[in-house]
User: Fold this.
Amino acid sequence: MSGPPVPTPLQVIPVLGIPEITRGADLAGLVCDATELLEGDVVVVTQKVVSKAEGAVEAVDADDPLSHKVIVERESVRVLRRRGELVISETRHGFVCANAGVDLSNVERGTAALLPEDSDRSARRIRDGIRARAGVRVGVIVSDTFGRPWRRGVTDVAIGSAGVRVVVDLRGTRDAYGRELQVTEVAVVDEIAAAAELVMGKATGVPVAVVRGLDPAILTDDPASVRHDLVRPPADDLFR
Amino acid sequence: MSGPPVPTPLQVIPVLGIPEITRGADLAGLVCDATELLEGDVVVVTQKVVSKAEGAVEAVDADDPLSHKVIVERESVRVLRRRGELVISETRHGFVCANAGVDLSNVERGTAALLPEDSDRSARRIRDGIRARAGVRVGVIVSDTFGRPWRRGVTDVAIGSAGVRVVVDLRGTRDAYGRELQVTEVAVVDEIAAAAELVMGKATGVPVAVVRGLDPAILTDDPASVRHDLVRPPADDLFR
Assistant:
């Protein structure tokens, strides 16, 4: 039953001990307090705590389950579909998601969390803070939970990143048969966000995970950005 | 810099030493030869090797880069979008993907790989084979690489599964503030497939990965199925 040694497994580590986040919280410092980071780690932080730390939270009527809908309309630059109370729209960041990312879960009663103003900038701040505090160069991904067409269920995806190649381009590399690969670009930041969700759960209050052991080629000091590199330009998009 | 102990990290382990797969190959046996599996592991196997083992491969004209297009049309029950040579269509399994899942990469020159006839059944066979051979109850996911609207790049998703809850329903469970969660169903099989891709790469010839340390509640002996539980019924789908 024993096989050959298996190199470089990936680890996905939940970061416990992150306290309740309020406006102005130093997320980088809190992550460094809670866990020891290594060069080349990717730290995944959920949108909810980023929005709370940045004050991207608005008051809603706690007794009116639809009171956040005004915010949804305001945060939508274009509505793709409506069905009942559900709105699928494009946000000013270019994300297409339900309710423009406005969310009532895991926030205080009577409040709604909005998407961060610029989630790539949020990721950069956390990355810079970790480097200043712990002296390690990590990648940072801000993740959120999106639905998708054709398939039931939600998965976590990246809405911001820093220090990580967003889309890894395999164009021109060859498959195991020496043929040029047709599938060219892997959205590794979304795969990393999905992997992190598996240890966060949705209701367990673990807003940060560390992914350790990724291919070092995924990390970069270039200014890769989810908004610039992952949002599909509308002209290239067959479903917008 | 040291923090509290971190419990249950997830491990994503590439399985090396899987030989070239040909029709009739015993995938369960080959996986058991290559690595030691533990109760509760989830084994992710790429569609390409499943299709090869099942003989879901057809001859095409190696000198005509479009000769597989006839197969694409035949494998499509409905075309959603066309642009140039690209076809986004629905397969008879209910999957919406590019080129009906027909693929020329990582197969012998002059051949095209089709989707397995029933990828949930493929997963069940592998799971049963591993149980018979190694005496452990694992989950099995057959993964494939799909694009998606609105976001650039491809990610791996599940097209078949056995022994894994496909969509974990959090409906009625409560968030950290005691509010009933609005986001209800997490497509954990897709998140597991995405995590596995991070150690497989696209051109490295690693067609199998093991995900270890998942929440045991994700595993099930119920007949969960990607085709029944993950494909969104067309009537519920706003984008079909």
Q: What stands out?
A: The helical segments of chain A are 27-34, 47-54, 69-75, 119-134, 188-200, 226-229. Chain A has two domains: 11-56+116-234, 57-114. The CA atoms of residues 79 and 89 of chain A lie 4 Å apart. Chain A is about 25% helix and 25% strand.
